[in-house]
Design a protein that fits this description.
This protein has 301 residues and is of the alpha/beta class. The protein folds into three domains: 1-105, Spore Coat Polysaccharide Biosynthesis Protein SpsA, Chain A (Alpha-Beta Complex); 107-176 and 215-270, no CATH class; 277-301. Helix content is 27%, strand content 24%. The strands form four sheets. The chain has a five-stranded mixed sheet with strand order 3-2-1-4-12, with helices on both faces. The chain has a five-stranded mixed sheet with strand order 5-15-7-8-16. Strands 6, 10, 11, 13 and 14 form a five-stranded mixed sheet that branches. Helix 1 runs parallel beside helix 2. The N and C termini lie far apart (66 Å). The mean pLDDT is 89.
C-alpha cells in the first residue's frame, strides 16, 4: 500500500556541514508516495545558499520543491514551527493531499518505513493510537544499531501493547521522540485544530515540540503516549520496518550523552527473568512486602 499524495516539510537550519544530510534524505523523497511536494524551511535568505539547498534536494523531476525563509520568527528555535503555516494552507486548499510528513533534516525515511506505517495505521485505527518510528544510530566498526532516544531497557511484559497475533504486537515505549511525524488527512486535521499545534502543549524543548505531532494528544488510559511501534515477538525484536536512521550518529559517539547507548536488539527485554520480575511487581502482595521490609529497617535504626 502506498501514499497517494504526500506533502513533506523539512526544517533546515543552514550549516554547510549539514547539507550532506539533507541531500541524503532527499534521495528517498520520490519513492515515498505517488505524488510528492517538498517544502524546505530555512533560516537562510542568501540566494546562493538557497540555491545550494535546491541543488541538493532537487535530484528528481518527480517531486515539487519550494524553499521558504520565514521572516516573522522572533527566535531562531521557532523555525521548526514554521511548517504549520504551510500544512494548514495545504490542508484547506489542496484536498488531493492524503498525507503530511514533518522531518528534521537528518532523518532518513524509506519506502519500507512508509509501507509499515500504512499497514500499521489500518491495524491501529480502531484503537485510536498512531503508528510511529524509532530512530537509530550506528557506531564506527560496529554492525549493531543503537536507539537514539531510548535511554533505558524495557520489559516487554510491562509495556502497554496491542496484540495483533502471537507473533506481532504494537508496543508503547516511554521515550517516544522520533524527530518527525507522519499523519494522514484525518490525523492532520485533528493536529491543526487541537492544542498539540501550539508550543506550550508538549513536554519537550521548544524546537523538539514541533516534531511531536499528536504524540501526547488524546492518549489512551495506561499509555505513555499515542505512539506505538511494531514488535516481532517470535524474533524478539523491534520491527526493522519502523526504524529510521538518525544520520549524524552523534549521540552514539558522544560518551557524555545517555542517548544512543542502548542496542536496538536489547531495548525490549523478553526473558524468563523479566517475566518473573514483571509478575512480582504486578502481584497485590508486593507493595505490602516492601512496606514490611521498610518497617523492619526503621526499627533497626
Amino acid at each position: 500500500m502506498s501514499i497517494e499524495k504526500l506533502a513533506i516539510a523539512v526544517t533546515f537550519h543552514y550549516r554547510e556541514e549539514r547539507i550532506k544530510y539533507l541531500e541524503k534524505i532527499s534521495t528517498q523523497f520520490d519513492t515515498l508516495a505517488q505524488v510528492v511536494s517538498v517544502y524546505i524551511l530555512t533560516n537562510e535568505a542568501d540566494n546562493d545558499k538557497k540555491s545550494n539547498i535546491l541543488r541538493c534536494v532537487k535530484q528528481s523531476s518527480n517531486f515539487f520543491v519550494e524553499i521558504h525563509t520565514p521572516t516573522y520568527l522572533g527566535h531562531p528555535k521557532l523555525l521548526t514551527w514554521s511548517h504549520f503555516c504551510i500544512f494548514k494552507r495545504l490542508l484547506y486548499t489542496d484536498p488531493s493531499i492524503t498525507h503530511f510528513m514533518y522531518l528534521e533534516d537528518d532523518i532518513f525515511v524509506t519506502r519500507t518505513n512508509i509501507e509499515y506505517w500504512m499497514k500499521a495505521r489500518r491495524e491501529l485505527k480502531s484503537m485510536k493510537v498512531i503508528p510511529s518510528f524509532l530512530r537509530f544510530e550506528n557506531k564506527p566498526c560496529s554492525l549493531q544499531l543503537y536507539s537514539t532516544d531510548c535511554t533505558k531497557k524495557y520489559s516487554f511484559y510491562r509495556l502497554p501493547k496491542f496484540k495483533l497475533s502471537e507473533d506481532y504486537y504494537y508496543i508503547n515505549l516511554p521515550e517516544p521522540y522520533q524527530g518527525m511525524y507522519l499523519l494522514d488527512r484525518e490525523l492532520m486535521t485533528e493536529h491543526l485544530h487541537g492544542p498539540s499545534s501550539i508550543p506550550e502543549y508538549t513536554p519537550w524543548g521548544i524546537s523538539e515540540k514541533a516534531a511531536a505531532g499528536l504524540t501526547f494528544m488524546n492518549v489512551p488510559n495506561g499509555c505513555y503516549s499515542r505512539n506505538f511501534v511494531g514488535y516481532e515477538a517470535k524474533e524478539k525484536r523491534i520491527d526493522p520496518s519502523c526504524l529510521v536512521h538518525h544520520l549524524p550518529n552523534n549521540y552514539s559517539e558522544d560518551l557524555n550523552s545517555p542517548h544512543g547507548k542502548i542496542k536496538i536488539d536489547e531495548l525490549v527485554a523478553f526473558s524468563f527473568f523479566s517475566v518473573i520480575i514483571s509478575k512480582l511487581l504486578d502481584h497485590p502482595i508486593f507493595p505490602k512486602i516492601i512496606l514490611r521490609l521498610m518497617g523492619r529497617r526503621r526499627q533497626k535504626m
